[in-house]
Specification:
The protein has 166 residues and is an alpha+beta fold. The protein contains four helices and seven strands. The longest helix is centred in the middle third of the chain and has 16 residues. It holds the Pfam family 4HBT.
Length: 166
């Protein structure tokens, strides 16, 4: 499924991804751990200098959060229709430390550092073996799919996220 991209001004608007969620019983096999995802750097991920284009780390972090939710038994799709709730990225603070290159195998590590009434703060890192390449703090907010206004995270989802939190 492709995520809709919201356009507008500012980093948050360019990388505002909607995550549609539904609960399923069977987790995906893509993640090694509940909070790690390995991603291979492809040619399309690199810039003219042969290194990962800076904005692509946000894509990697999005994939890691989505796959982690799947490992927790929360899958993308119809929760937006059944419960009228979506997650949108509100804030992304990111620090670039070292460059990743074509064919590198990255490990994206994710953890929840704060669970609010309507928000979740994730700490995410991109590693190449023992080298920390990039780190971020990303805040997502639960919104009503009709009004796009913040709303409390549904109790079942909250329970799952509390168990996964630090």
């Amino acid at each position: 499924m492709l995520y809709p991209r919201i356009t507008g001004s500012g980093l948050g608007a360019h990388y505002l991804f909607l995550i549609h969620i539904i609960y399923k019983d069977k987790p995906t096999e893509m993640s090694q751990n509940a909070n790690q995802l390995q991603i291979r750097v492809y040619y399309e991920d690199t810039d003219a200098g042969g290194i990962v284009f800076y904005a692509n780390y946000l894509k990697f972090f999005e994939r890691a959060r989505t796959e982690w939710l799947r490992r927790l038994g929360i899958h993308q799709s119809t929760m937006a229709q059944t419960e009228q709730q979506l997650f949108v990225v509100k804030q992304a603070d990111i620090e670039y430390l070292k460059s990743a290159k074509l064919d590198d195998l990255l490990t994206i590590r994710s953890r929840i550092t704060h669970l609010g009434g309507a928000s979740i703060r994730f700490a995410q890192e991109a590693w190449r073996e023992d080298d920390l390449l990039c780190q971020s703090q990303i805040v997502v907010v639960c919104v009503d799919s009709h009004t796009m206004r913040a709303t409390k995270i549904n109790p079942h989802l909250r329970s799952i996220l509390e168990k996964a939190q630090d």
